[in-house]
Amino acid sequence: MSFILHSMAAGLSIALGGYAYLSVESRYLGALLFSVGLYVVCQYRIPLYTGRIAYLGRPGGYKAARLMQMLLFNLIGAAAVGLLFVPTAAGQDVTALMANKLSSPLQSAFIRGLMCGMLVFLAVDIASRFQDPFGRYLGILLGVPAFILAGFEHCIADMFYLAAAWKMGLPFEAAPQLLFLLTVILGNSAGALLLNLLMPQPVKEGGKE
Q: How far from 188 is each of 23, 67, 89, 147, CA to CA, in Å?
């Protein structure tokens, strides 16, 4: 039960970062504020799919079935925040934001998801390897604004945006909206797995690189 609740909390945390992003007019300030979501995930070590999928098949990594369960409850947590969304006067239009995402070709959504998966992997992996507070969270403070400002796609954040857009009047269209989310999930997964495969792995004491 705790795994389910913690997975929902991770999705909720990312959604709160997305909410902060939408609540300010400046994309640059919003991108920085979005970092709070991944910061909370790493600080409390709660299970976020996009932060854990890279370690599939690695020692200490989650198995595929557990990752799918994690993803489901991440999405539920993010959607719950979206359905409670109340826009701010100076904020961005989430309906227009989501409509723009959904209008892009699926191959474009996949590539943007791929790049986001790489950046999230780097942010999480750096946070797990460094001991000093500055180095530990520098990856988050650089990586998260980078993927936001570049327009990359994060599946949990997109679930929040989609639910918030429903709340604000965007029609529910199962096929294109779920296909978009699935495409981003595949992109996030592929990007994280690929970059982890290419990166040097931590060296155990007494071992060789």
A: 25, 13, 32, 12
